[in-house]
Amino acid sequence: MLVDVRPIHKLRGDRAVDVGASLAPVLGALCEDSVDLSRLRVVCDWVQYKGNFRQPVDVRPILAPGTDLLAAHGTAPVAEEIEVAIDLRRSGDGGIKDAVHEALGNRQDASVPSPPARVELEDWMPTSRSCVWSFNALYWQALDLWEQATGRQYEQALPGGESDARNRGAVGELVADMLTGFDDLAARNALPEELYVVELGVGNGNQAKVWLDEFAAADRAHGTEYYRRLQYLMCDYSPHVLELARKAVTDHAAHVSSFVLDATAPTTALGFLRGKVFLVYISNVYDNLPTEEVARIGGRSYRVEARAYLARGDVVDLAEYVAASEAAVPALIHKLLRLGPALLAEALPERFPGVETAVGFWQRAWQALKLEERYVPLPGLDTYRIAPGVGGEVLRPLLESGHDVRMHVNNGAVASFVDTIGLLHPFGRLLCHDLFVTDTHQYRTGFRGPGKYDGSVVNWVNGPLLQLIGSRKGFDVCYAPFAHRSGTNIVTMTARVRD
Q1: What is the pLDDT of residues 84-140, one digit of tens each?
Q2: Of 255, 239, 231, whose CA–CA distance to 202 is shortest?
């Protein structure tokens, strides 16, 4: 039996976790159970997101190569090993021993039957295709209804209550550097007449306003007319968010255009700007795009598969909330994800007498939503596709480093990054503030998501992977701590054409 305690930063200091006290009931339960200890891994994380998709104890089957995955719809496939995942943050709440027994009791002879205490919302699938991302998309599509119900704007759910992209010090430095670059090109008669800046994920527009205010003021002080030539393109998935953003930048309306687009494929709307954009500005977008995870365990590579479920008790509560049968709840959730709360209330007034009831059902379902996971062998990294035009072989130096590791692939972020860098002018840059893992070792020492921010999903972004992909495409990608606010996990990524 292997015991892997990952949150090493929690093991020292005044508030150190008593790992012995946390693990004692876990090991006691395992020794009392009939599970084969020689085929068992115990992985301890500190799940810092209070809103998350995990139970205090989860059991993950590690399937053998050649396993018939179609058996998941009939006879459950037999696991070669079992991983017992413990959340140390909640292990001291009591009942952890019973939770281990209960979790292992859901697995008979190391197989994966449908747990009787759970109601599944989907079949096993790569996490990037799970309905958690349909919930995430719904949040942005119906953000106005969510905000009305909670009484607060989504940005208040972020750590610190605002985006670091609005920091005037950081924006001022960026603008000053851009003006210097424009001067150099102008001196060589190489500066285009139109100066394009693209922002992906505009939030409520405050960061666009800060950037435009700072640029206009710096241009006046600089004695140039770059602001006159500026074209600022605000892009977002949510029409509601774009409408808010447009109101925030009315003082700069003559220089601003807005586009509804999918951040994973910006050139579908912005293809006319290939090679013309001097700055692509992104904040807290990559961590909110669909992602899968891969793992290296015992010298083999695995893809993490998941399926969403609700605890039986939560299904009972949801059924009572809308006066429906328990059996009807999964179908109602999927109808919500297809139609949204407003249309759902129109389609089923007997269950949802008003939009408020539909939003309440949505929020309760999201709060209750959990994920169970399993490890499925990868036949070869060259058979795995991360994103359009990006094969899994690029993961090899990160995944096959000689240690067991589980990491994000950030499929959506990779697709966005690869598509976006094609927009850059040879002297342009992509600047992104986000939650970046900057060293693969960080995946071995802490939990990096998924977590829940209000109604959306958050995962840290695999920085070394973006560096490798950028390098193959002729770009230098570097990371630096966000310099203008202490205590933040935000990192600044910069990508430029390699000299």
Answers
A1: 999 999 987 678 888 898 888 744 344 444 446 899 999 999 999 999 999 999 999
A2: 239
Report the C-alpha gap between 376 and 126 in whole angstroms: 10
Cβ atoms of 58 and 304 within 8 Å: the answer is no
Q: How far apart are CA 96 and CA 63, in angstroms?
A: 26
Outline where DSSP puts E strands in 347-469.
370-377, 385-387, 390-391, 405-408, 424-434, 436-437, 451-453, 456-458, 461-462
Q: What is the spatial distance between Cα 66 and Cα 378, in angstroms, rounded to a whole number?
A: 10
User: Phi-psi category of 340—alpha, beta or left, where left has phi over 0 and alpha has psi -120 to 50?
Assistant: left
Per-residue buried b or exposed e for 136-150, using 16+ beta carbons within 10 Å of the residue's own CB = bbbbbbbbebbbebe
DSSP for 72-109, please give it: GGSSPPPEEEEEEEEEGGGGGGS-HHHHHHHHHHT-ST
Distances (CA, A) of 160 to 155, 157, 423: 9, 8, 32
Sign of CA dihedral 463, 468, 469, 475: positive
The reply to whether the predicted model has a pTM over 0.85 is: yes
Asked whether the CA dihedral 392, 397, 402, 404 is positive or negative, the reply is: negative
3-state secondary structure of 18: coil
The H or E element that residue 33 is part of is none
Distance set, CA 237 to CA 350, 460, 474 (Å): 32, 20, 29
For position 157, what pLDDT does the model report? 63
CB 382 within 8 A of CB 68: no
Question: What is the secondary structure of 294-347 as a DSSP string?
Answer: EEEETTEEEEEEEEEEEEHHHHHHHHHHTT--GGGHHHHHHHHHHH-HHHHHHH
d(CA 399, CA 465): 10
Helix, strand, coil % over all residues of the chain, rounded to 5: 45, 25, 30
| Tokens coding 10 | 């929690």
Bridge pairing between strands 2-5 and 40-45: parallel
Hey, how many other C-beta atoms are within 10 angstroms of the C-beta on 97?
17
Q: Which pair of tokens denotes residue 284?
A: 């807290």
CB-based contact 466:493 (threshold 8 Å): yes
Which residues contact residue 231 at a Cβ distance below 8 angstroms, ignoring those fewer than 6 apart? 194, 195, 196, 197, 255, 257
Q: Distance of alpha carbon 484 from its chain centroid, rounded?
A: 24
Two tokens, residue 297: 């365990």
Class of 154-290+384-497 in CATH: alpha beta
Task: Quote the CA–CA distance of 497 and 499 in Å, as a whole number.
Answer: 6
| pLDDT tens, residue by residue, 397-409 | 999 888 899 999 9
Rounded Cα distance between 446 and 444, Å, is 6
